[in-house]
Design goal:
304 residues, mainly alpha, 3-stranded antiparallel beta sheet, 66% helix, elongated
């Protein structure tokens, strides 16, 4: 290719020399003619000498231009013919090449399409596996715990690397399941404790109502609210007829109900005191829902 360029440049130089040779004496003489006419000036209207020189220069340069164009056409005629021949040869080769090139392109396209289809199929499969094994798609990333994968990398990812992500996702699922099971156990424990408390409140409330119906003339001593730091006041115990269970005081209730209350997650003395003295906690009358609401608000770690 480089040699061809050198040959073309050399050929052009030769044509240039031939063009000058056929139209003017030599390059130096031609440059002198150009310099001479380029310096002509007509100073005034009556300066006929300068005027005639300008006219002579125009005619002489015009003749040079005509001769150069004529010579160029003569020299380039065979070149144009050769160019046409070259273009013909070019088309001949292209006509031989094009059909084969198109067939090869078609074969390549078939394989490329198959590769693309396989890549899409692999992406769909891996997408499903990730979503089934602890990953979720957030924006352009699959995320599981602290692990994330860019979605665009699924097609090119090695199988070994992908399987490692799947194993991580499975472990993440196991961790979440264990956490949920623990939360369920804790929630059930709270439900069971609350149910036991409700049953005990219902039992004590029934005892209280039964006693009041049997002894309407007696009024249980009302106790004014006291600060948390103050001890619970002593409550008087009314006389109880034979066969009727008396309502216990706050000081006696813990020992009586210790076996039942054992393991229940709330402050025993506080719950009993609410049952025994509802007005002390802002309850106008002894109601089941009111006592449960007050007892639920107790901090299990508080002790009187």
């Amino acid at each position: 290719m480089e040699n061809t360029e050198v040959q073309v440049l050399s050929f052009v130089d030769n044509l240039k020399e031939q063009l000058i040779k056929d139209t003017v004496v030599d390059a130096v003489t031609f440059q002198g003619i150009l310099n001479r006419y380029s310096e002509l000036e007509i100073t005034e209207v009556n300066d006929m000498v300068s005027y005639n020189l300008v006219v002579k220069g125009m005619k002489e340069l015009q003749q040079y231009r005509i001769n150069i164009q004529k010579t160029r056409k003569q020299i380039s005629a065979p070149l144009l013919s050769a160019q046409k021949e070259l273009i013909s040869v070019e088309n001949e080769f292209i006509n031989l090449i094009d059909p084969i090139e198109k067939k090869l392109q078609e074969k390549k396209t078939v394989i490329d399409d198959k590769k693309e289809a396989l890549a899409n199929e692999l992406f769909t499969k891996r997408n499903a596996l990730l979503l089934e094994n602890g990953f979720e798609l957030i924006g352009k990333f699959y995320v599981s715990g602290i692990m994330q994968i860019e979605a665009n990398n699924l097609r090119e990812m090695e199988e070994t690397e992908f399987n490692q992500y799947i194993e991580h996702g499975k472990k993440e699922i196991e961790r979440k399941v264990k956490e949920q099971e623990l939360r369920d156990v804790q929630a059930q424990k709270i439900i069971d404790e609350k149910k036991a408390l409700e049953e005990k409140i219902a039992e004590l409330t029934a005892q209280n109502e039964a006693y009041r119906k049997l002894h309407p003339e007696e009024e249980v001593k009302k106790v004014d609210p006291v600060l948390k730091s103050e001890p619970l006041p002593e409550l008087s115990r009314p006389k109880t007829p034979m066969g009727v269970s008396p309502m216990k005081t706050a000081q006696e209730m813990p020992s009586i109900n210790e076996d039942f209350l054992k393991g229940v997650n709330f402050t025993k003395l506080r719950a009993i005191d609410i049952i025994e003295n509802p007005r002390k906690y802002g309850l106008d009358k002894l109601t089941k829902d009111g006592m449960i609401e007050k007892i639920d608000s107790i901090n299990p770690t508080e002790l009187w």
